[in-house]
Write a structure and sequence with these properties.
Porin; 15 strands; two-stranded antiparallel sheet; about 270 residues; about 5% helix; 12-stranded antiparallel β-barrel; mainly beta
Length: about 270
């Protein structure tokens, strides 16, 4: 059963990365590699009263070994911020209390590189049921001074669940816990994140996924990020896919809106 979801924590959702790189190749055992690229754009005030935005472009190389996989992501980031938020796994999150300055600055550069791994611990037929254990390490390669990252290592783990309940409808649910590194002068809380939703093929080459996503705020007293996401995955052929989606924020801790677009190729 193809897996379409966020991936571990806040990473590229970002979403595009998870859409394009989450499932085991369904055909041809010799296509054990996958390369993917995406653009993820989000904009909102994040409870600061000032319009902020981020453009996140992850490049990912993924390798499969039977029911296990490993991946490496190197992203490029461009952000317009006011000093109260920073990028954590591909999304702006508030790391300081208060509304911050009304003056914004834009910085661009290399983001935090991410190592991920997963293992399918349970597979069932004829009604497919998937349970996958996942883990990740975020390497602090982004500039802390430019607000492109915290400058600290994060580690996380989680479980991803999928169950086909009726013909052409699959329930999805994920839960993750991430140990967040705190930069000097701040005290960030660890993050618990979850999402749930569905996946439904619109036709043989087109699949729709809908997700509700929520995570805990990194700073005490701030709003938990919550959003709704719709994703469409288009199978071009047995080796290539395109994907796109939109996001609507539901809380002050989330962007007001966002979109994502990307593609992948197995080889």
């Amino acid at each position: 059963m193809a897996r379409i979801g966020r991936g571990l924590g806040r990473a590229a959702v970002s979403a595009a990365l998870a859409i394009l790189a989450a499932s085991r190749p369904a055909a041809a055992a010799d296509t054990d590699w996958k390369a993917s690229a995406a653009l993820d754009y989000e904009s909102g005030d994040y409870g600061t009263g000032t319009r902020l935005s981020t453009r996140y472009v992850p490049l990912t190389l993924k390798r499969y070994w039977g029911d296990a996989y490993g991946s490496f992501t190197a992203p490029w980031i461009s952000e317009t911020t006011n000093g109260t938020v920073t990028n954590v796994d591909g999304r702006l999150l508030k790391i300081r209390r208060g509304r911050g300055s009304s003056t914004t600055t834009t910085h661009s550069g290399l983001g935090d590189m991410i190592l991920r791994g997963g293992y399918g611990i349970l597979r069932e037929d004829p009604q497919p049921f998937d349970l996958t254990a996942v883990a990740k390490v975020k390497l602090p390669t982004a500039s802390r001074s430019d607000g492109l990252g915290t400058g600290e290592v994060d580690e996380g783990a989680g479980l991803e669940f999928g169950k086909k309940v009726v013909e052409d409808w699959t329930l999805l649910a994920d839960v993750y816990y991430t140990f967040i590194g705190s930069p000097p002068g701040t005290s960030l809380k660890n993050e618990t994140a979850f999402d749930f939703g569905f996946s439904h093929p619109l036709r043989a080459d087109l699949t729709l996924t809908g997700l509700y996503e929520q995570s805990t705020a990194l700073v005490s007293g701030e709003s938990d990020p919550q959003d709704l996401r719709a994703l469409v995955d288009w199978k071009l052929d047995d080796l290539s896919r395109l994907a796109g989606g939109v996001l609507v924020g539901l809380s002050n801790g989330s962007p007001d809106y966002g979109f994502t677009f990307g593609g992948s190729r197995r080889f």
